[in-house]
Design a protein that fits this description.
With 281 residues, the chain is an alpha+beta fold. 21% of the residues lie in helices and 19% in strands.
C-alpha cells in the first residue's frame, strides 16, 4: 500500500507508514535533523526538522509525522526558516557547538546568529567528566538530543545506564541516581559515543589528542573490517592517523548491528601496533 503526498508542490509516493522526512528524502529535499538518526526511535526533541503542513495549526516534526494521503507540505517557507533559525540560535547561545559540524553548517544555511542573545546568556558550561579510560563526557556540548539515551535503552543496548534527569533549565543527561559512571550500570559499549552529534561524548584517545593538538581528521584514513572477537560478524570502520588506530565506529547501514557495537568491538583495539615480546629460545 502506498501514500501520495505533496512536498513543495511536487507529488511524492511513499510506502504506508513512511514519515514526512522519508518523503522529503525521496523528493531530494535536504531537511536538517539533529535528534534524528536512522537506527534510533524518533523522540521529537530538537524541532530542527519542522515543516509546514497545510491545515495544521503548528509546524510538525518531519522525522516522526506519518504521511497521509493528500498531505501538502512546505519545507522552506518563511515560517519554517524562522523556526529553524531560532532553534539553532537557542542551542548555540547556551551550548558549545564547536565540534558539531553538521549543526554549524545548518547555522550558516539559516543565517543563525546566537550572539544576538548577548554575552550573558545562560550556558551549560561545566567541567569535563573523566572517570574512565575509554571515553569522556563534556556536557557543556550536550544539546539534549536524547540519542545517547535511546542507544543505551531499547533501541540498542538495553542497559538503561543513562537518562534525562531534571526538567526545564535543569534537564541534563545523568546516570541512574546520578552515581559516578564507573558505579552505574554502564557496560562501556560506547554506543552513546557513536550517536552523539556534538562531541559531548568522545573517545578518550580522541580527547587526549585534541588536548595535545595532534588530532587531524584531514590526515585520517578509514577502512572496514570484520570484528574478530566473536561470530556475530559486526563490521568495524577503523579510523587511523599516522598508521595508528585512533577510534572505531560501525556503519549505520550494516544489517547486523546497524551501527551499534559492544565494548570489545569499539574499544578492544589498543593492542594493535604495540608489538609483541620476543620469546626466549
Amino acid at each position: 500500500m502506498s501514500v501520495q503526498v505533496e512536498i513543495d508542490g511536487k507529488p511524492v509516493t511513499v510506502a504506508d507508514g513512511a514519515t514526512l522526512l522519508d518523503a522529503c528524502k525521496k523528493a531530494s529535499v535536504d531537511t536538517p535533523t539533529l535528534c534524528y538518526l536512522e537506527n534510533l526511535t524518533p523522540v521529537n526533541a530538537c524541532r530542527v526538522c519542522v515543516v509546514e503542513l497545510e491545515g495544521a495549526r503548528t509546524l510538525v516534526p518531519a522525522c516522526s509525522r506519518k504521511c497521509e494521503n493528500g498531505m501538502k507540505v512546505k519545507t522552506d517557507s518563511d515560517r519554517v526558516r524562522l523556526s529553524r533559525k531560532m532553534v539553532l540560535e537557542f542551542l548555540a547561545s547556551s551550548v558549545d557547538v564547536s565540534l558539531a559540524t553538521d549543526l554549524q553548517m545548518q547555522m550558516k544555511r539559516y543565517e543563525a546568529d546566537p550572539s544576538r542573545y548577548g554575552s550573558q546568556a545562560q550556558t551549560t558550561r561545566q567541567p569535563v567528566k573523566i572517570d574512565n579510560d575509554l571515553y569522556v563526557r563534556d556536557y557543556s556540548k550536550c544539546v539534549l538530543c536524547y540519542k545517547c539515551v535511546e542507544a543505551c535503552g531499547t533501541d540498542a543496548q538495553n542497559t538503561f545506564a543513562i537518562a534525562v534527569a531534571g526538567r526545564g533549565f535543569d534537564a541534563h543527561i545523568s546516570t541512574e541516581s546520578d552515581v559516578p559512571l564507573p558505579d552505574s550500570a554502564c557496560v562501556y559499549c560506547g554506543n552513546c559515543i557513536g550517536v552523539c552529534p556534538t562531541g559531548a561524548l568522545m573517545f578518550k584517545t580522541e580527547y587526549d589528542m585534541r588536548e595535545a593538538g595532534t588530532w587531524d581528521e584531514s590526515k585520517q584514513t578509514q577502512g572496514d573490517t570484520i570484528c574478530a572477537y566473536c561470530g556475530v560478524g559486526c563490521t568495524l570502520t577503523v579510523h587511523a592517523q599516522d598508521n595508528q588506530i585512533v577510534k572505531v565506529s560501525s556503519p549505520l547501514d550494516h544489517d547486523v548491528t546497524r551501527g551499534h557495537l559492544c565494548i570489545k568491538g569499539r574499544f578492544g583495539w589498543q593492542f594493535v601496533g604495540k608489538g609483541t615480546k620476543k620469546r626466549r629460545p
